[in-house]
Amino acid sequence: MAKSRPGLSSVDNALQLVRLLAQHRALRLSEVSDLLGVAPSTAHRLLNSLRAQGFAEQETRNGPYRPGPVLREVGLASAGMDVRQVVRPALERLSARTGETVSLGVLEGRNIRFVDGIEGTQTVRVGNRTGVLIPAHCTAAGKAIMAVLSEVEFERRFAGRGLERRTPESISAWPELTRELTAIRKAGFAMNVEEGEKGVSAVGAAVCDVVGAPVASINVVLPSTRMPTKRVGRELAGMVLDAVADASAALREITR
C-alpha cells in the first residue's frame, strides 16, 4: 500500500497516483485517499488534474477512475509500439478485402485526425486520408469513437460546443447527433454519407483497449456512388468490425 509521507509535494502525490492507476486499473476516490494517505478533497483535486491532462478518466461522475489515454499510450510505448503499428495488419487485411481506401483515425480534441491509411485499388477512389483533420461529428471515424466515450470524457470534450456544418448533410443539431450516437452504440458501427465532404462516404467502428475505452477507429472510405444504400454500408460494416476485432485483440495482447 502506497502511503503518502509527510512533506511530499503535490507533484510527488500525483506521480504516486499515476503509478497506482497503472497498477490497479480502477480506483474510487475513497481508495485513492486511503492509498495516498491524503484527505478526500486532496485526492479529488489530484484526480481532476490527471483527468484534465489525459492521465485518468472516469466513465460516470460517481464511478471509478481508470488510466486515461496518455497512460495507455505510455503502455504501448513501453512495448516499443504505437497504435498505428498494432492496427496496421488489420488495416492491410481490410484493404485487401474491400479494395477501398481504409484509414485509422484518432480523436484530437473535438476533431478526428487520420494517422494511417492505405489507398484503394479502384480506378475511382478516395485518396489516402493520412494527416487530414476534420470535426469528429462529420465523420464515421469520429462518430464511432464519440458513441463509446465515457460520459465524463464526452462532456469534457463536447459539452456546450456548437456543431460545424461542412456540407448540407452534416449533423448540426445536438438532438439529432444524440439520436445518431445512440443508434451507433447499438449497431457497433457508424456510417457517414457526405457529412464531411460531398461525394465521399464511409463506414467506421471504434478500436477499444483492455478496459473498453476507445483509442482509435478503423474506417472504409469510398465514393458515395459505391455506397448508394444503407444495405451496402452494412455489408462493409461487417468487414470493418472483423478488422476492429483483430485490432482490439492485438491491442489487448500488447497492453495487458
Automatic annotation (TrEMBL):
<dbReference type="Pfam" id="PF09339">
    <property type="entry name" value="HTH_IclR"/>
</dbReference>
<keyword id="KW-0805">Transcription regulation</keyword>
<dbReference type="Pfam" id="PF01614">
    <property type="entry name" value="IclR_C"/>
</dbReference>
<dbReference type="InterPro" id="IPR014757">
    <property type="entry name" value="Tscrpt_reg_IclR_C"/>
</dbReference>
<protein>
    <submittedName>
        <fullName>IclR family transcriptional regulator</fullName>
    </submittedName>
</protein>
<dbReference type="InterPro" id="IPR029016">
    <property type="entry name" value="GAF-like_dom_sf"/>
</dbReference>
<feature type="domain" description="IclR-ED">
    <location>
        <begin position="70"/>
        <end position="256"/>
    </location>
</feature>
<dbReference type="InterPro" id="IPR036390">
    <property type="entry name" value="WH_DNA-bd_sf"/>
</dbReference>
<dbReference type="GO" id="GO:0003677">
    <property type="term" value="F:DNA binding"/>
</dbReference>
<keyword id="KW-0238">DNA-binding</keyword>
<dbReference type="InterPro" id="IPR050707">
    <property type="entry name" value="HTH_MetabolicPath_Reg"/>
</dbReference>
<feature type="domain" description="HTH iclR-type">
    <location>
        <begin position="8"/>
        <end position="69"/>
    </location>
</feature>
<keyword id="KW-0804">Transcription</keyword>
<dbReference type="InterPro" id="IPR036388">
    <property type="entry name" value="WH-like_DNA-bd_sf"/>
</dbReference>
<dbReference type="GO" id="GO:0003700">
    <property type="term" value="F:DNA-binding transcription factor activity"/>
</dbReference>
<dbReference type="GO" id="GO:0045892">
    <property type="term" value="P:negative regulation of DNA-templated transcription"/>
</dbReference>
<dbReference type="InterPro" id="IPR005471">
    <property type="entry name" value="Tscrpt_reg_IclR_N"/>
</dbReference>
